[in-house]
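Reviewers of the previous submission asked for a worked example of the structure-prediction workflow described in the proposal, so we include one complete record here. The input consisted solely of the amino acid sequence. No template or homolog information was supplied to the procedure at any stage.
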Amino acid sequence: MDIVEVLKSWVGAKKGDKKHQEIVDIYNSYLPHPRGYKLTLKDSWCAATISSAAIKCGLTDIIPIECYCTKQMEAYKAMGRWIEDDSHIPSVGEQVFYDWEDNCVGDNSGSANHIGIVESVTNGVIKVIEGNIDNKVGYRYIKINNKYIRGYGVPKYDAKTAEKVKNKPE
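From that input alone, the workflow returned the following structure tokens.
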């Protein structure tokens, strides 16, 4: 199952609706709960949306399951699958981590406080599917090397999965 397709099927889900409940239920089905925390409908849910899609697609061995962005970023670092390079052109299926609290001094190196998955890259613009963007699952368009991009989590898709994800920029 293609993680991007799963996320696209959730586009439009709004906080508190049936699709949001599905996302929360899928996340909570993963045991033990990361850090022992059971997600609620009131929680922020961007990381949980990506995690739920990974659970649904059977990708929990290559995408860290977490409902807290910074913890997921730390897990990618521990796996050796973290890229923090302003010139990086992400591939479909990579996770984009943001830090909205940029201090405008050097590289953005604070905590991650939002994430999404790359759907496509065209002419230097990344199309990202995100949970909890304006309280729904939706899209963000952001330029490569945007100051708010903290870095990228790069799942190690195998040949079978990469074919499904079409792990190449457009």
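Strands lie at 82-83, 95-98, 114-122, 125-130, 138-143, 149-153. We consider this example representative of the routine output the project will generate in years two and three.
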